[in-house]
């Protein structure tokens, strides 16, 4: 069951992304369909209006020819062509398959009567070239009817209703599309964060492996050489035995240190900075001097990681001062405030006045497998120190110059005293309120 849940959680973001893409594609197709429907409705409405306008124009011309003929007794020969055009437009308008979508039943019957009147009453009188007065009276009725039809086509309320319903559906479609985009962006961020977390985990594993290889390679080589030169029938020299024991001791120390690094993120215990630094300097009281301001002294810090890092920096400084007399190592710590921010920085410096390092060596100092001591290093190394400080969301900065000594600065974000005091004040206030209510 746990396996299935794990597989489901792994596949769920991809299923969500696929669903979001599918929903986006569906809304795109819906938008295209709404556009096509709107274009079709507008084209149909335009054709109906154009046909009705043609009928009205031809009827007006026929009506004018009949009035002139009634006055002069002579009918214009163009009236036959106009009558034919009127009949064609009426027939085409009646035969439109979508006419009923826009014409109410009354207007459809009125259009049918117009066609019958033209065919049964007006056309015979025009052909006979007589009785223009009766034809004029019938044409007046037809003109009134075509005005009614034209007004309904101009109003085209059915068109407005259908386009309005399409607009509403399109608005819903845009809302759905926005939801799909939001879901797609959310699942993309989930997948991106998952891959970023996997990459960081892989980078940490690689760094951890390179750190272990960096610290154990020379010792393993020494033990291998000892075993290859050892003879079963001859006791090894005391010097070789001492070197082998020393290499084994160093490997054991390295293994314990690496195990501490591995479990350091899980160790949530914190201690005050002042006692931690004093404890590290206790066994080296003649060489290490500690200066911590009052605010930094009481600052809670993660015990295991910071102890390992500071101890390694002290060992590096002692190695740099080997052969030098009365050259103390200075450890200073202070809390620097940032205006208008609730998070300040703890700045811790470990400084020595040893030989120092060139700029090229400073650049490579935190690079895996780089060392200035030719394999005689048993501690964590600046590479591990830098990575451990980064796990505390801080930075490790090396300032060094040949002949001027080396200062390693550690910057770690910490909660400000003001923020802590304010939170404590709020907790005390809530406690007093609950006590008063009780």
Précis, in short:
The chain is α+β, with helices and mostly antiparallel strands and 438 residues long.
What does it look like?
With 438 residues, the protein is of the alpha+beta class. It has two domains: 2-172, Four Helix Bundle (Hemerythrin (Met), subunit A); 271-425, Heat Shock Protein 90 (2-Layer Sandwich). It is built from 13 helices and seven strands. The chain has helices at 2-72, 79-94, 99-102, 105-128, 132-155, 157-229, 238-263, 273-282, 294-297, 303-320, 359-364, 381-391, 417-437, and strands spanning 270-272, 288-292, 300-302, 329-336, 343-352, 395-401, 405-415. It has a five-stranded mixed sheet with strand order 2-4-5-7-6. A two-stranded antiparallel sheet has the order 1-3. The longest helix has 73 residues, at 157-229. The radius of gyration is 48 Å and the shape is rod-shaped. The model is unreliable at 417-427 and 429-438 (pLDDT under 50).
Keywords, please?
two-stranded antiparallel ribbon, alpha+beta, Four Helix Bundle (Hemerythrin (Met), subunit A), 13 helices, 438 residues, 11% strand, disordered C terminus, Heat Shock Protein 90
Largest sheet: 5 strands, mixed
Unreliable stretches covering 5 or more consecutive residues: 417-427, 429-438
Count, helices:
13
Name the CATH class of the largest domain: Mainly Alpha
What is the rounded Rg?
Answer: 48 Å
Succession of helices and strands: HHHHHHHEHEHEHEEHHEEH
Structural class determined from secondary elements: alpha+beta
Sheet-strand content, in percent, reads 5-15%
What's the number of domains? 2
Give me the count of strands: 7
Largest sheet, order of strands side by side? Answer: 2-4-5-7-6
Q: Report how far apart the termini are.
A: 47 Å
- Based on the structure given, which CATH architecture of the largest domain is correct? Up-down Bundle
- Reported by name, the CATH topology of the largest domain is Four Helix Bundle (Hemerythrin (Met), subunit A)
Helix content: over 70%
The shape is rod-shaped
Residue-averaged pLDDT: 76
């Amino acid at each position: 069951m746990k396996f299935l849940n794990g597989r489901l959680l792994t596949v769920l973001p991809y299923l969500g992304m696929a669903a979001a893409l599918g929903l986006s594609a569906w809304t795109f197709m819906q938008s295209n369909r709404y556009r096509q429907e709107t274009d079709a409705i507008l084209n149909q409405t335009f054709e109906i209006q154009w046909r009705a306008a043609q009928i009205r124009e031809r009827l007006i011309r026929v009506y004018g020819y009949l009035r002139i003929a009634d006055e002069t007794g002579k009918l214009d020969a163009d009236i036959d062509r106009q009558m034919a055009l009127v009949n064609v437009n009426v027939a085409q308008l009646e035969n439109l398959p979508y006419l009923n979508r826009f014409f109410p039943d009354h207007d459809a019957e009125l259009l049918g009567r117009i066609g019958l009147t033209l065919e049964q009453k007006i056309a015979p009188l025009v052909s006979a070239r007589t009785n223009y007065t009766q034809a004029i009276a019938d044409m007046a009725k037809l003109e009134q009817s075509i005005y009614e039809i034209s007004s309904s086509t101009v109003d085209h309320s059915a068109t407005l209703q259908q386009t309005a319903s399409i607009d509403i559906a399109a608005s819903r479609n845009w809302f759905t599309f926005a939801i799909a985009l939001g879901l797609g962006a959310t699942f993309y961020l989930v997948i991106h964060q998952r891959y970023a977390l996997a990459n960081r985990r892989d980078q940490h594993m690689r760094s951890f492996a390179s750190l272990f290889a960096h610290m154990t390679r020379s010792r393993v080589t020494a033990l291998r050489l000892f075993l290859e030169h050892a003879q079963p029938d001859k006791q090894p020299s005391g010097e070789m035995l001492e070197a082998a024991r020393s290499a084994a001791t160093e490997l054991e120390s390295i293994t314990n240190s690496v195990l501490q690094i591995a479990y350091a993120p899980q160790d949530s215990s914190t201690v005050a900075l002042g006692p931690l630094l004093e404890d590290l300097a206790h066994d080296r009281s003649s060489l290490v001097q500690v200066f911590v301001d009052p605010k930094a002294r009481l600052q809670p810090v993660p015990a295991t990681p910071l102890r390992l890092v500071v101890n390694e920096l002290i060992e590096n400084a002692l190695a740099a001062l080997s052969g030098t007399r009365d050259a103390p190592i200075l450890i200073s710590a202070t809390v620097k405030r940032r205006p208008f921010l609730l998070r300040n920085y703890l700045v811790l410096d470990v400084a020595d006045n040893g030989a120092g390092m060139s700029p090229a060596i400073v650049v490579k100092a935190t690079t895996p497998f780089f060392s200035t001591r030719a394999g005689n290093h048993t501690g964590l190394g600046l590479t591990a120190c830098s990575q451990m400080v980064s796990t505390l969301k801080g930075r490790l900065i090396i300032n060094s110059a040949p002949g001027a000594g080396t200062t390693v600065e550690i910057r770690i974000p910490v909660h400000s005293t003001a923020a802590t005091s304010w939170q404590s004040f709020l907790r005390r206030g809530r406690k007093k309120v609950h006590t008063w209510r009780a």
